[in-house]
Amino acid sequence: MSKEKEPAKERAKNAPNVKSFKMVKPAKPTQAEMDAAAIMAAFKELQVNEFVKYMRSPWRIMWHNFLAGVFRGLGLIVGLTVVFAILIWLLAGLVDFPLIGQYFEELKNLLEQFAEIESPR
């Protein structure tokens, strides 16, 4: 006889006794399990999975390095322009000093010539 057609009393006889099962307390986690949980929490906090995804994408790394190089180059150009402009402005003011003015004028002329040579036309 199949189980669907088996009478309810027969099924109750064959069923395990629910009262015979004991409730088992969950086991206390071991030190290794607690350490592993702490490491996983630290990884989530540090977003290690995002870093691993980034490191597995060589095109993304190359793109970021390219952009970083472009902006470093632009920063160098802008920074040197500002430094040379301030230096020439200061030297132009020092040309009027007696005795040392002629040396500052020569230095100023050298910097202006350098700026003309190095500037793209």
Return the structural class.
mainly alpha
Radius of gyration: 40 Å
Task: Kindly estimate the percentage of residues that lie in beta strands according to DSSP.
Answer: under 5%
Termini separation (Å)? 100 Å
The coarse silhouette is rod-shaped
Count of DSSP strands: 0
- Discrete helix count: 5
What is the mean pLDDT?
A: 80
> How many separate structural domains?
1
Largest sheet: none
- Helical percentage: over 70%
Q: Which series of helices and strands comes N to C?
A: HHHHH
Low-confidence stretches: none
Brief overview:
With 121 residues, the chain is mainly α. Helices cover 71% and strands 0% of the residues. It is built from five helices and no strands.
Verbal overview:
- The protein starts with 7 loop residues before the first helix and ends with a helix.
- 71% of the residues lie in helices and 0% in strands.
- It has one domain.
- It is an all-alpha fold and 121 residues long.
- The relative contact order is 0.04.
- The mean pLDDT is 80.
What descriptive keywords fit this protein?
121 residues; mainly alpha; 5 helices
Question: Which helices and strands occur, and which strands form pairs?
Answer:
Elements: H1 8-14, H2 31-46, H3 48-55, H4 58-94, H5 101-118
Helix pairs in contact: 4-5
